[in-house]
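Reading a protein record of the kind used here takes only a little practice. To see the layout at work, look at the sequence and tokens printed below.
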Amino acid sequence: MPASTIVVGKTQIIGLLDTYMEFPWNVFIPSVSRADIDRYKDLYPGSFSGENFRTRAGAYVIRSEGKTILCDTGVGPGPHAWLGGLTGNLVPDMESKGVSPAEVDYVVFTHLHGDHVGWNLAPDGKPTFPKAKYLVPQADWDFFTQNAASNPQMQVVTPLKDIGVMELVSGEKPITAEVTTYPTPGHTPGHQSLLVTSDGERAIVTGDVAHYPAQVEHIDWCASFDMDHTTTIETRRKLFAQLEADGVIAGVCHFPEAPFGRLIRSEGKRIWKAIG
């Protein structure tokens, strides 16, 4: 069974699952032929559900230096019409893994798409994570608030500012001495990851730098939701080369095989190897 928790130095990282989602392949990665996609069916079977692309709406808890950090908040409780009536399970999954919403000190968003901000607010409009400071990427805030009415996910983001629990961040911002935001733009203007460094060990938690594991090899395969393809490809090129070279553990929100893995070489190709 895939590992849901890893330890990096003195830091603990817990992988969470809100829900699985499915989309038609030609909608999600429209520029890639189905024949090319299917070449990886045996290597990444978890990405396939019948004729659809299967992906997970994942999130992560990082425990560092006495602080509890939640990276992303999934699709939300739902039911969600845009997902065929699916409901989210993030908070129950957290609690089953020993994390209470009341203990979260920081919520850090990789970006502001709807499947990463859904559990921000409780039904009464108060923050789901009552003592947390919510760290929002500045460039995403600047972009998505331009047309907030046409971006329904902002209905659970903009209230955080009014409540006074939101902080805009950019660049590399230390959250603890072990956890720092790390810019990985392209998918959205302010997309960021969380770099964990502790006792000489490293890991990275990233949102939508990639969606389908075959993208670790085919960095030019862009999803329809990638806003800036050129920047996305350049971010993947640099990040994936570094992760492979250094053997860094990665948590990628949408890879369905497992919450954690490494980029390794197999038969001359770079592949995603889940940590079991």
Remarks:
- The chain has a mean pLDDT of 95.
- The chain has one domain: 5-274.
- The helical segments are 25-28, 34-38, 90-96, 138-144, 158-163, 229-246.
- The radius of gyration is 17 Å.
